[in-house]
Amino acid sequence: MQAAQLIFSNLTAYLLGFALLILFRNKLSETLTNLLSIFINLAGLILSILLILGFQNDQVLRFDWVKMGQSSFEVSLLVNRLTILMFTLVQFIALLVQVFSTKYMKGELRFSNYFSYLNLFVFSMLGLVVSGNLLFLFVFWELVGFCSYLLIGFWFEKKSATDASLKAFLMNRIGDAGFLIGIGLVYFQFQTLDLTELSALNATNNSLLTITALTLFCGCMGKSAQFPLQVWLPDAMEGPTPVSALIHAATMVAAGIFLLARIDFIITPDAGIVIATIGAVTSVLAAYSAIFQFDIKKVLAYSTVSQLGLLVMAMGVGATNVAIFHLFTHAFFKAGLFLIAGAVIHHFHHKQDMREMGGLLKSKPWLAVAYIIFGAALAGLPLSSGFLSKDAVILSVYNWAAGQSNPLLMLIPLMGIVASVMTAFYVARQFTMVFLRGDDQKIQWKLPDLFELTLIPLLLASFWFMHSANPLSFEDSYFSSWFAIEHQQNHWVAYTLLAFAVLAMLLAYLRFKKEKTFPLSLWQKIGLEHFGIDHFYVKKVAPALVGNHCPADELCLEPESKGIADVVSSFDTKALDGIVNEIGVSQKNLSKGLHNFDNGIVDGSVNLLIKGVIGLGKTGSFMDTKLVDGLIKFISGLVEQTGKQLRKIQSGQIQSYLMVLIIIFVALLIFLASL
Amino acid sequence: MTDYLLSILIFLPLLAGFIVVLLPKSLEPKSKFIALAVSIINLLISIYLFRAFDGSATGYQFMEQKPWINLDLGNFGTFSIQYLLGVDGISLPMVLLAGIVMLAGAVSSMSIDRRPKAFYTFFLLLTSSIFGCFVSLDFFLFFLFFEFMLLPMYFLIGIWGGERREYAAMKFIIYTLVGSVFILVVMLAMGLSVNAPMNSETPTFTFDFRHLADAKNYISGSVLDQSSSIEWLGWPVRSILFILLLVGFGIKLPAVPFHTWLPDAHVEAPTSISVVLAGILLKVGGYGFLRIGIGFFPEEALNFAPWIAGLGVVSIIYGAFNAIAQDDLKKLIAYSSVSHMGFVFLGFAAFNNEGFNGAIYQMFSHGLLSSMLFLVVGVIYDRTHNRLIQNYRGLAGKMPLYTGAVIIAFFGSLGLPGISGFIGEFFSLLGGFSSPHLSKWFPSIAVLGIVLSAVYLLWALQRMFFGNFWVNRDLKDQMHDLNIKESILLYGLGALAILYGVWPALLLDVTNKSVEFFLQSIGQ
Amino acid sequence: MQQQLSHILESGSKLSVELLLFAGLISLILLISFLKKNEKARNVIWLVSLIVTVVSFFALTQTFVSDALLFNGLIQNSSFSHFGKSLVLISTAIILLHIKVMKYDLEGEYYVLILGIAFSLSFLLMSSHLLSMFVAMEAVSLSSYMLVAFRQKAHNLEAGIKYLIFGATSTALMLYGASFLYGITGSLSFAGIQQGLTSGTSDGNMVQIALLMTLAGPLFKLSAAPFHIWAPDVYEATPTPLISYLAIAPKIGGLYIAFRLLETVPYDHTIILSIIILLSILIGNFSALTQKNAKRMMGYSGIAQSGFLLVGLLGLEITGLRASGFYMAVYIFMTSGAFLLLDMVEKQTKSFQFSDMSGLSQKFVFFGIIGLIFMVGLTGLPPTAGFTAKFLVFTNVWEQYSGGGHKILLWVLLFGLINTAISIYYYFKIPYFMFLKTPPENKSENSLNMTQLSLLTILAFAVLALFFAPQWVQNQLF
Q1: SS3 C446
Q2: Where is the NADH:quinone oxidoreductase/Mrp antiporter transmembrane domain (chain A) (predicted)?
C-alpha cells in the first residue's frame, strides 16, 4: 500500500473507533468496547509497521483542501523518519495503555466514553505527527488539547478534575495564541505554511524571524509545559492514570518538542538562546518541585516537566536529533513509571499520598523490579536507555555552551546537570517511600497480573540494548543511524553527572528510609508549592481577570472581588449603555424643556417680563381678560356672550406665547442682519 | 420556474404571510406548519442554488431584472429603480445560511402558543425581507428589505419577548433605524452620482450594484466622483459617507461601541428570534458593509483599514471580557456574538483573499454556531425559565445528550479545529497577518480573543455542566434531557458546523472566485 | 374699459372650478336657510357639499392648464396651482367622508366653512399679487378660526382664540412685510416686485427682513417654526375631522405662497430657510416625544412634517418643488388617515391618551396593521410613500448640496434624517400600545364599524400604493 493510503486508513480507523464508541456508548458491553478499541489500536500498529517497512525516503503527499486566490491550503502529509518514528511510538504506547485501562477502568460509569476519547486522542496525535504544514499541525494540535481536556476532566463530578481540565485547556490556549501569531507571521513572511517549502526557503536571520520562532515556541510552552505555562501538567494528574501515562507523559506533551523539531530551521540563534534558557529554567524548577511532592503522580508529573525542559533546552541549542532521541526513550520509561503509579494507586484503592505507602516491594515485587528499571532510565544510570539519551542531551548542550563567546550561557547546561542530579534524587526517594519502607514480610512472587504484563514491552524498551549495542555510547545507537547524532567531546561531564546522581540516590535512600512524616521547612514548602507559581495564577491572576464570585449554594471562602471582566462589564452597562440611555433621558428632558419653553407657561423670565409689562396695581389675570376680550370683540364680534368663559383662560398664557414668538422672531431678524 | 428562484425566495414567504393573516381562527394552530413548510422550501431552493452555482465564473448569477419604479426628478433626470436580483459567491453563502437559520428558527418556534397567527405572520415577513436583502442587486431594493426587517423584528421582540421586551424592542428599532438613516444618506448620494451607462442625454440615476461599483459611471464633477475634492467639516465627503456606512453597518454587525442594543435585544427575544437575530440578521451588517462600504468606497475603505480592524479587534476583546462577567447564560452568548463578529471586521480590513474569505466564512459559521448556542439556552429556559449560570450544576450527569450538543457548540464557538468556527477565525487572522495594510498588532491582539473565548465558554461549561447534579431548588421540576425536536435541531446544526469545519471547500469553492473578482474590482 | 371687461370675463371663464365651488357655497347657504334643522336636512347638506367637491374635482381634471395671468395679474393659473387645487379638493372629499363615516352630526354651517376654505384656498393657490394673496389668506384664516371656535364649548373657544391671536399676529407681520416690499419696489404683484428687486439697487438686508416678515403668513398656515405655537392646543381641542382638515388644507396654500414669496425675492434663502426647517423639525420632534395625548402628538408631528415639507423649497428648483408637492400629496393621505385612526380609537376607548389604546390591536388585528401603515408612513420608512416623499425632498437637498450649495444643506440632510429615526419613538407609541401592551381587563366589547375601516383601508392603500407607483402622483405634478 501507498504511504498515504496507510496513513489515511490508520487515521480513519481511530476516527471510526471514536464515532462507534461514542454513538453506541449505551449499547456496547464493556468487553466489547475493550475488544473493539484494542483491535483498532492493534490494526493501527500493524499498519504503522507496514509504513516503516515500506519507507524509503522522505515523501510529501499533498491533497487539495482549500484554494484562496493564488494561495492554496492543502492537506499534506509529510512522511519522513521523524514522522514514522512518532507515528509508531504513539500507537505502541497507546496500545499498552489501552490494555492497561481495561483493568484500570473496569466498572467505570462512562467507560465507553473513555475509550472513545482515547481513540480520538490517538487520531489527533497521529494527525499532528503526519501533518505536513503548520495549518494542519495546528488543527491537530488543538484537537489533541481538546482530548486532553476531555480526559483530564473525565471524572467531571470532581471539582478538582474539572478545574484541572479547565486550567490545562486555558494554559494551552495561551500558548496556542502565540502559536497562531507565529503561524500568521510565517505566512506573512513566506506566503506558505507548508513545512517542506518553508525548509527549502533560505530564511535570513532577522529579528522578525526571531519573533516568529519565539511565538511559535509559545505553542510548545503550552503543550510541553514550559515555564511559565507549566502549571497545568501537575494538575492534569486528576485524569485517569493511564491517560497520564499516554498523554501527559509520553505523547501529547512531547508534541511541543516535535513542533520545534519540525520548524528547527526557523529557530534563529537568538531565539535558540531564549528557548534553551526557558527549557533549563523549567527543568530545574520542576525537578526541585518533584523532590518535595507527596502525591505519587505529582512527582512523576514534575519529573515530566523537568525532562521536557531538558528536551527544550536541547532544541534551543540546535541539537534536534538528540532531543528526539531523549523524547523517544523518555516516552517508554515515563509511560512505564506512570503505569506503575496506576497499578500502585489501584493497589492502594485510589490513595495517592506516598506517605501512606510503603513496603510494596514485598507484595508487588514485579512492580518494584519494573520501577527499578524505569527509574534507572529516568535517573540516567548506565545500561538504561535514559543513560544514553540524557548524556547525549547534556553533552550537546554543554559543548554548545562551551563554544559560545558568552560565558554566562554555561549556566544553561549547568542547570540541566543540576536538574538531572535532582532527578536521580527524587527517583530514589519515590522508590524508597513507595516500595521499601514498611513491615518485614517475605517477598511474595506471584504470577504477574495484567498491569505488570503490560509493562514488559516498555521494560524492554528501557534497556540499552534496544537502542545501542554499546551501553555507554549514544553515538553508536541504532537511533543515530536514522537520526544523525554528532559525536560529542567532553564525556567527562557525563561521568561526573553520573557520580553525582548515584550520590544523590544514596542520600535520598538514607533520608527517606525511615521517616514517614516530617515538618516542612521553608524550602520544602517552596518545592511542594512549586514556587507559588500556580498559587499566583489561581489566587492572583484569575481573580484579577474574572473576579471572585461566590457560588449560589456554598459558603464564601474567599472575599468577593471584582476582576477586569467585571470592570469592563460595568463600564458597558453603566457607561456605554448608560450614555445611550442618558441620551434617551436627556433627549426626553430636552424635549420636555423644549416643550416647556414652547408652552412658555413655566418660563419664569417670560412671566416676569409679562408681569412687569402688565404690572402696577392690576392683576395679570384682569389685564388678560380685558386685552383678550377686547381683541376678540374687535375682530370677530363672535363672543359677546362668552366673557365668563374667557376668564377661565389661564393667566399669562397667550401673552407668553406671543412673547416667545416675538423673541424667536427678533432673534431671527438679528441673525439675518448679521449675515 | 428556475428563472425565478430568487423571486420565489422572497415572495413565497410573503404570500404565506398573507395566507396566515387570513387564516380563520379554527386553523390558527396550523400556521406553524405553513411557516415550517415555507422554511423548508426556501432551504431547498437555497441548496439548489448553491449546487447549481457556477463557482468558477465571476459576476452575478440567477439574475432577474425588471424595471420597477421610476422616480421623476424633473430636470435633474430620473431615478431608475430596478427589481434586480442575483447572487454571487459573496451573497450565496448568506442565502444558504438564511435558509438554514430560518428553518431552525421555524422549528424552534413551534412551541410558541401565544397568538401564533401574528407570530408567524411576522416571522414570514421577516423571512421574506432577509432573503430579499441578500439577493438584491439594487441599492434601493436592498435598503427596502433592510428597513423592512425592522418592523417584524420589533414586534417579535416586543410581543413575544421577556420581561423587558418593550424596552429592548424600542432600543433595537431606534438603534438600527439610526444606522439605516446613515445608510440612506449614502444611498441617496450614490444614486444621484451614478449615471446608468448608455444614457447620455438626461441622466438616469441608478442604484444598480454593478454600475455603482464602476468608477466610470460616476458623473464627473459630482460629489462622489473619485476625483472629487469637496469637503465637509474638513473631511472629503466621500470619506464622510464611508464613515456613515461604517457606523450604519457597524450598528447592525454590531461593532463596539455601537453594540449596546444587542445584549438587550437578544436577552429579551424569544429563543427562536434570538436564533434568527444572531444567526442571520447580524450578517446583513457584515454583508452590507462588504458589498457597499468596501465595494463602492474602496479607497476610503483602504484608508480606514486600521480603523476597521481596530473596531474589529476592540469588539473581539471587549465583547469577550463582557461575556466573562455575565451571570446570565444568554447574555454571555449575546456578548460572545459581539466578540465573534469582530473577526468579520478584522477580515475585511485585511483586503486580501484570506481575510475576505475568512470573514465570509466567519459569518456563515457564526450563523450556525450562534443559532446553536441560543438554542442551547432555549433548552434550559424552556424547562426552568431561568438562565442564571449559578443556578445549575452538574447537568452533564443528568442530561448527557444536551451536554454533548453544548460541547459541540461551545468548542465550535471557541474555535476548535474541525468545527466551522475555526476556519473563519483562522483565515480572518491569517488575512490580517498577511495584509500589507495592517499593523501586525491588530491580528496579534485579536488572537487573545481565542483565549478569552475559551475562558468564558469553558468556565460556563464547568460551572453549569460539571460537578454533581444540582439545580437551585425553585427550579428543580423538569430537568429531562433533550426531546427529539431539540436533538434534531441541535445535532443537525452541530453536524453542519462540523461538516463545514472539516470541509471548508464546500463553501470556499463558491466564494473564492467571487472574492477574487471583488478584490480585483476594488483594485487590490 | 371694454377691453378690461372682456379680460375679466375671459378670466372668469377660466375659473370654472372656483365658480362651481362658489355656486355650491351659495346653494349650501340657501339650503341651510330654508331647510329645517333636523338630521335629514344635515344629511342633504352633507351630500350636496360632497357632490360639489367631487364635481369640482372632475371639472378640475378637465380644465386645460394655461400659465396665464388673470384679472390684471391678480391671480395666475399655473400647473402648480392646478395640482394644489386638486389636493385641496381631495382632502376636502376625504374629510367629508370622514365626517360621515364617523357619524358626526354637524350643523350645516360647518360645511359652508369647509367649502369656504376650499374655495379661498383655490384663490390663494393662484394668487400672484400681494393683494390677492392677502385677501385669500385672510378668507382661509377667518373660515378656519370659525371652524375651530364654532362649537361653543369653553376649550374650543379658548383654542379658537389662541388660533386667532396667532393668526392675527402673523397677518400683521405679513402685512407689515408686504408694505415694506411695496415700499422698496413700488409694486404689489409678484412679478413686479421681482423685477423691481433685480433691476433696482435695494438694501439686501432690508429686503430679506421684509421677506421674512411676509413669510409669517404662509409659515403660520404651515404651522412651521416660529409660528407653530398654536398647533398642539388647537389640535387637541378641535373635533377630529375638522382638525384633520386644518392640518392639511391650509398647508397646501402655505407651501405655495412660501414658494412664491421666496421665488419673488431673488436672493439666496438657503440659510434662513434651513434654520426654519431645522427649528420646525427640532421643536416638533422633540416636543412630540413626551406627549401622552395622541392628538397633541399629532400637533407637534405636524410642525415637524412642515419642516420636511419645506425641505423641498431649498434651492427653489422645480425638482424640489415637485418633491414637496409629492410630499404634500402623501401627507394628505397619511395625516387624514392618522386622524381617522385616532378618531376610531377614540370611539373605542373614549380617549386620545396613548395608555388607553393598550392592546387594542390584539382585538382588532387588521385595524392595528392599518394603523401601523400610517405610523410607518409618517416616520418615513419603506414600503410606504412616506419614505418616497422624504427620499425625494432629501434628494433635492443632496442635489443642491452637490451642485455647490451651502454647507448647511448637509446639516439639514443629516439632521433631518436623524430626526426621522427619533420620530419613530413617538409615532410608534401608537402601535406600541396597541400591539405590545396587554389590554386592561374591563374592556367594553365594541366592534369596529366596517365603513370606517373601509375608508381607513383605502387611505392606507394609497399610502402603500404611492410607494410602488409614485408615477400616479408624479405624472400629475407640474
Answers
A1: coil
A2: 131-402
Separation between Cα atoms, residue C100 and residue C105, nearest integer Å: 8
Residue A659 forms part of a structural domain: yes
Question: For chain A, what is the domain count?
Answer: 1
Rounded to 10 deg, the angle between the B261-268 and B329-350 helix axes is 130
Is A312 a domain residue?
A: no
* Count: domains in chain C: 2
**Among A110-124, C60-74, C419-433, C444-458, which is the least confidently predicted range?**
C60-74
- The minimal CB distance from C157 to the residues A639, A665, A673 is found for A639
Per residue in B73-120, pLDDT (tens digit) is 776 778 888 899 999 989 999 999 999 999 999 999 888 888 888 889
The distance of B196 to chain A (nearest Cα, Å) reads: 31
Asked which of C267, C299, C330 is the last residue of a domain, the reply is C267
Any CB–CB contact under 8 A between C76 and chain A? no
Query: Best of A156, A158, A211, A232 to disrupt the B interface by mutation (most B CBs within 10 Å)?
Result: A156
Shared-domain flag, residues C317 and C386: yes
What range defines the domain where residue C335 resides?
A: 269-478
Residue where a domain stops, chosen among C267, C284, C301: C267
Q: Are residues C340 and C461 in the same domain?
A: yes
Using the 8-state DSSP alphabet, how is residue A191 labeled? Answer: S
Q: Where are the beta strands (DSSP E) in B311-381?
A: none
- The DSSP string of C175-188 is HHHHHHHHHHHS--
What φ, ψ does residue A131 adopt, rounded to 5°? -60, 135
Residues ≥6 apart with Cβ < 8 Å to A436? A358, A359, A361, A509, A513
Between positions 457 and 486 of B, the ones with CB within 8 A of A are 458-459, 462-463, 465-468, 470, 472
The residue-averaged pLDDT of A292-316 equals 90
Cα–Cα distance, A31 to A37 (Å, whole number): 10
pLDDT(B68) > 50: yes
Question: Per-residue pLDDT tens for B176-215?
Answer: 888 888 999 888 888 888 877 765 566 788 888 888 887 7
Judging contacts by C-beta atoms under 8 Å, the chain C residues touching residue A636 are: 142, 145-146, 164
Q: How many residues does chain A have?
A: 675
Polymer length of chain B: 524
Provide DSSP, C1-17.
-HHHHHHHHHHHHT-HH
% of residues, chain A, pLDDT over 70: 83
Report yes or no: A585 at the C interface, CB cutoff 8 Å: no
Cα(A168)–Cα(B317) distance, integer angstroms: 22
Residue of A nearest to C233 (CA): A599
> What distance in Å separates the CA atoms of residue B25 and residue A544, rounded to the nearest whole number?
58
Asked if C163 contacts C231 with a C-beta cutoff of 8 angstroms, the reply is no
B117-126, C12-21, C130-139, C450-459: segment of lowest average pLDDT:
C12-21
- Pick from A65, A68, A547: CB nearest B512: A68
- The pLDDT, as a whole number, for residue A623 is 37
What is the span of the domain harbouring residue B462?
304-524
Average pLDDT in chain A: 80
Do C125 and C46 share a domain, yes or no?
yes
pTM of the full structure: 0.89
User: How large is the ipTM?
Assistant: 0.86
Of B73, B115, B222, the CB nearest to C395: B73
Q: Is A376 part of a structural domain of the chain?
A: no
Decide if A424 is inside a domain. Answer: no
CA–CA distance, C309 with C249 (Å, rounded to integer): 13
Name the region of B150 (left: φ>0; alpha: ψ -120 to 50; beta: rest): alpha
Q: How many structural domains comprise chain B?
A: 1
A644 touches chain C (CB under 8 A): no
User: Domain range spanning residue A637?
Assistant: 600-673
Q: For residue B416, give every residue at least 6 positions away whose Cβ sits within 8 Å of its Cβ, in sequence order, or none.
A: A142, A143, A146, B422
